């Protein structure tokens, strides 16, 4: 499925500045979906995740579910 991200408001991760490995996400860009992109390549592709899956991923990261990465 192609999602129109023209006019999306991108927000940089609060972990930006950790050696240039930064991501941005566009909350509210499309109902039920969360687009994510590389902040160093804003014209490049975006990955689009179901909002529930993205929320589960963020919760797992916050709780240390992926170990020490």
UniProtKB/TrEMBL annotation:
Q: Which Pfam families match?
A: DUF397
Under the heading InterPro entries, the entry gives: DUF397 (IPR007278)
**Which protein, by its recorded name, is this?**
DUF397 domain-containing protein
Q: Where is the DUF397 domain?
A: 8-62
